[in-house]
Amino acid sequence: MMKDFKNELKQIRTEQKECNEELKKLKRESNMLKEKNQILIKNIEIKTELKEIKNSVDILEKEKRINNVVVTGLKVDTSDPLALKEAMIDFVKQHL
Fold it and tell me: Which chain positions lie within coiled-coil regions (predicted)?
């Protein structure tokens, strides 16, 4: 009787150790999954922000192209913005 009790107690302790080990393993796995989830959430946020930035850049590039005028046949030997502006004003006044 006492021997049976000892064996049963020993078996219960063994099962308890196994359960504790399994619990520790599950906790580690849960922590790893939480970290991975945080990384994935951050990646999604970054991708969303990148899409918004690309859209903004596309809109700005389209607006910039709309305001650009290409003039051919105008000979200017300078890259000075003021001189270019003056040459353009003179060209438009003469031809329009």
Answer: 2-63
